Structure formats: C-alpha cells, structure tokens
C-alpha cells in the first residue's frame, strides 16, 4: 500500500474516495483510470501524486468490462454528445498516447487495437412523439458535427431487410463514429499507461473518509487494513458504489447499483450475409440487440432495462466476491422469455427461432435524479470531486470525462468540454437535467 504525500492524491475506491478516490466496482474502472492518466499526462513536471484504490484488480464485476462496449453520438444533451464524440476521436486519432511504447503498428492504431466495430446505433420510433424526439435530437446532434441520418420507413426497410418496419415511423442511424469496442483492452491499456506515468494502483477498499475539523475538506482516507492516505483532492469515480462512498464524507449522492442482464443468442436463419451489418438497434420498447463477434455467424447480444418498479437495487455494501457470486447465480430466464424474446421476434421475424447461448450480469451506476453523470467538485467540500452516476454511459464517456476532471483539478476550469451543468448543485437543488436517449 502506498501513502502519497504530495500536493494531490487520487484514490479510486469502491467505498471511499480521496485525492482521486476510486473504488472501481461497477462503471468506475475506465473513468477512474483515465482520470489518473490525464492527471499525470496533463500535469507535466508539476503532475500531482496519484493513487488509485481498486478492490478488484481482475475487474470481475466492473461495469466497464461487463458492458456491451457501445459508443454513440445519439444523445439529447449537448454535453453527452460532446463527451462521446471526444472519446471516439481519441480512439481513432490519439490512441498511441496510451499504447505500449514497443507496440507494433496494429497495437498503436486505436480502432484495430480495441476492435472497433463501427456499425452504428439505430434508434427506432413507433409513435409520432417518438419520431419528433428523434427529429429534435438529430438537429442538435448534427449541429455538433455528429454523423447521424434520419431514415423513413421505406429507407429503413431497404437498408435493413431483416427488420419488421411496418409500425416504425422514423429511425435515427449513426452512419459513422458509432459502434462498439473491447472495453477490457482499453481499460488495461489505460491502466498500464497511467502506471507508466507514475500513478499508483492499490488493491484495497476504502473504509472511511477523514474530514477536517470544520467538515469542509477531505483530509484523507482509511483503507481496509487500517492504512491512512492523506490527500489534497479526492475523486469519487466509484461507479455504482459512489453513493456509499459519498456518504462517508457526509454527502448525499443518489447513485445506486442496479442489476442489468445481457443475453447471448444464436439465430441460424441469420447466418451468412444477413448478419453482415447489424447496428446496435434500439426498439421503441427499449429492447436492444446487436451483432456479436464476426459477421455471418448469426450471433447476437441483447437485453433491456427493466421497468422502474421491477428494477433490482443491489446492496452497496457487497464485497467484490459477493457481487461476483450474485452475478453468476442470479437467473434471468423468465425475464428473457417474458420481456426480451417477444420483442425480438416481432422486430426481427427470424428471431422467432433462436437459442440462448449464455448471459451475464453487471451493474448500472444509476443516478436516480436524472440518469446523468455527476461531475466536478462538491460546492461545500471543494476537494471532493465527483465523476460517477453515468447510468450506463460511463465506458463511452470515460476518456473525455477523465480529461475534463483532470483539467478542473489542475487548472480550476474545464478546457476541453464544459461540464458545469453536470455539477452537484443540481443534486442539492433537486433540479434534474433529463437525457431522452436512455438505453
């Protein structure tokens, strides 16, 4: 265990945070690691000392790793659009910054290194209200430089003949800079590079956040073995467990771990050319599916977020081992049969006959106020910085969020993307900022 003594410390911890407090256990893996990377990369000769506290270095329960790996531009808030577009630009143009120095050309080329499948997202609208939302979102997305097209029913059916389109009025399709990646590879590259630049990763959990006498500043954290680490700034990038971490500093943060399942399916009828191009398609019901693995194999993954009343909130005090066991043993067979399969079979008639080949579970770090990230310093505890609550969008926004958080810590301002609207003030005032494109 390393105790940092320089001006700034970052701790990524699942139940605490500090100087870059990160407790990665669901959604915070990439956010915390990229914050560490950018603090060291942007700080230059004056870069702060950075310590990342990680309870599960194998990332068995990390949302970053268990996600579908999706990246999209199709959001309704300008901040979310800019965050995801910046992450994609880094992958395409700047990935060499985190590539191993002795890597060959393929391993330094971001899209190939992370297995970018640039097949787009396809949002379907089955009502006039849904179509109007797509039109309004599209106008904003295009104004920000996003490559998104609106498809009417006839165009949609021609481009994706495997879809049942008779009840669809309009679709939004990302023609470039959308798709999915291997998030684990990116996480490992970012962690290696952050370590190379001087960040320290500690395997532990944070059990306590120490405040000064007035309660206005974080002084340090206490780890599970009793080790105390002092810090100048604490970043809470604890993902689904960031609410519990914030409570250790006497802060209410409405972020909690909610269970999500992803199902692997095989459809023999869609082997061959039919599955050559299949974007991540979002049905009006919220059910989604995309191709998985190589084209022409007939393999897909799919899922849907449960309704609010049936959502499962996990105990934030669970250990990494308990959480891994929960993921492994919780069955979602009935959920697939009742909620997912009927929609799949209606939208893609070939899915009427399929085989479920596997499934896995993970957590969303749900911000119950508005399903958007909370980013930036606490108004009363200015050295307690938030970077969590992405509600399923953390992986795709991690690169750019980490940079923005590092900028604010180092320069007291956002320089790449202004994320002021995502600050904690809206939590304190109970003033949600609603994102209309939630999957």
Please render the helix and strand layout as text.
Layout: H1 29-43, E1 51-54, H2 63-66, E2 70-71, H3 78-94, H4 105-108, H5 110-113, E3 121-125, H6 128-143, E4 148-152, H7 153-159, E5 170-174, E6 179-180, H8 183-196, E7 200-203, E8 206-211, E9 218-223, E10 228-230, E11 234-236, H9 242-247, E12 255-266, E13 280-282, E14 288-291, E15 299-303, H10 320-329, H11 333-347, E16 355-367, E17 374-377, E18 384-388, H12 394-411, H13 425-429
Parallel strand pairs: 1-7, 3-13, 11-18
Antiparallel strand pairs: 2-6, 3-5, 4-5, 8-9, 9-10, 12-15, 12-16, 13-14, 14-15, 17-18
In short:
The protein has helices at 29-43, 63-66, 78-94, 105-108, 110-113, 128-143, 153-159, 183-196, 242-247, 320-329, 333-347, 394-411, 425-429, and strands spanning 51-54, 70-71, 121-125, 148-152, 170-174, 179-180, 200-203, 206-211, 218-223, 228-230, 234-236, 255-266, 280-282, 288-291, 299-303, 355-367, 374-377, 384-388. The chain has 439 residues and is α+β, with helices and mostly antiparallel strands. It is globular.
Strand order of the largest sheet: 4-5-3-13-14-15-12-16
Coarse structural class: alpha+beta
Globally, the shape reads: globular
Q: Estimate what percentage of residues fall within beta strands.
A: 15-25%
Strands, count: 18
Please give the oligomerization state of what you see: single chain
Pick out the low-confidence regions: 1-28
Largest sheet: 8 strands, mixed
Query: What is the averaged pLDDT score?
Result: 89
SS element count, helices: 13
Percent of residues in helices comes to 25-40%
Amino- and carboxy-terminal Cα gap: 39 Å
Based on CA atoms alone, the radius of gyration comes out at: 21 Å
